[in-house]
Amino acid sequence: MNVYTKIIPILLIGTLFLRGGATGYQEEIPRDIAIAFKVGTAKELARFFNNNLELAVGEKEDVYSKSQAERIMDNFFVNHPPRSFKFIHQGGKETARYAIGKLVTFNGEFRVYMLLKQKNGQSLIHQLRIENEIE
After folding, report:
1. Which of 40, 63, 96, 123 has its CA 20 to 30 A from that of 87?
2. In percent, how much of the chain has pLDDT > 90?
3. SS3 (DSSP) at 58
4. What was the pLDDT predicted at 120?
């Protein structure tokens, strides 16, 4: 019985520590990215683009410069005005994180996948994929 009284508190503290770390970790995806998707502003979203990024939107899939990717996203938002956006999953480690989101537009629903990496202390999008959500 003495062993259990020592092990249980350690397990409880460890569990709380791990859960607290996971909760804090979710906040590392910049909130402004979600806001940019909700509002549909490519200029704001482009603030988080790396100088070059892999972008897949509709038929366009390639590595684009930051300015090219901004124009593609601007066109996407014009053709698909957003109604809502939310992150549904995110994870990774300190230097590289991924996020999956759901974008609801007036023309349909889309799944958004992104990979962010740290560069000069800032989280930047290196890969962004927007696909029609099939139900």
Report:
1. 63
2. 68
3. coil
4. 87
Q: Kindly indicate whether the domain formed by 30-132 is annotated with CATH number 3.10.450.50.
A: yes
Q: And the tokens for 77? A: 């938002």
Q: Which two tokens stand for residue 54?
A: 């892999």
pLDDT of 121 reads 85
Distance CA 105, CA 97 (A): 25
Q: Domain spans of the chain?
A: 30-132
Query: For residue 81, which amino acid is it?
Result: P
Does the pTM surpass 0.85? The reply is: no
What are the Cα distances from residue 72, in Å, to 30, 46, 59, 67?
21, 11, 11, 9
Q: Distance (Å, rounded) from C-alpha 37 to C-alpha 85?
A: 6
CB contact at 8 A, 94 and 71: no
- Alpha carbon dihedral 74, 96, 35, 26, in 10-degree steps, equals 160
pLDDT, tens digit, 9 for 90 and up, residues 63-98: 999 999 999 999 999 999 999 999 999 999 878 999
